[in-house]
């Protein structure tokens, strides 16, 4: 885990997902613009530039180990290896026929691009019969957060995420994961999230959550 970032560095870096199209020079220019607009930030400029470069390089390195994206895993043994070998990991147990699982995947994909310190993965429950029984998964979507291979939080359906029982936003999901300690800091903005709440069609879904047996 990185040392605590200067707030101005974190603000600039977090506006951009950690992907190969990022331009470090553009990030530096953005940081310098922030400093030009705030004389108080002008001091210690060199330290901030060093932090920005280090964070940019670290994000690129993490991406080589599948961080920075939401990846579907096909084999439950591979999934178990990931959760035990990764410090911070979020696993979505899903089913492709359930609309709510698709909504959850969409929000996790947004967060994965921002939170490169955390590994985001999903697995179809049909491919994880052992884990479904071992973990007692009965309702989908089911998101389990792991720290150092230990489960620290479980989200069943959309329960405990946001204020509406039938919709969630990426910002609300981020807040829940932040409270569990599986993401390092809040990174979502209103522009990122756009508050695109999606109301579940009860006739299509048959209720708020999807029972799976």
UniProtKB/TrEMBL annotation:
Residues 1-25, 194-213 are annotated as: Disordered. Residues 202-213 have a biased composition (Acidic residues). InterPro entries: Thioredoxin-like_sf. It comes from the Eukaryota. This is Thioredoxin domain-containing protein. The lineage of its organism: Eukaryota, Fungi, Dikarya, Ascomycota, Pezizomycotina.
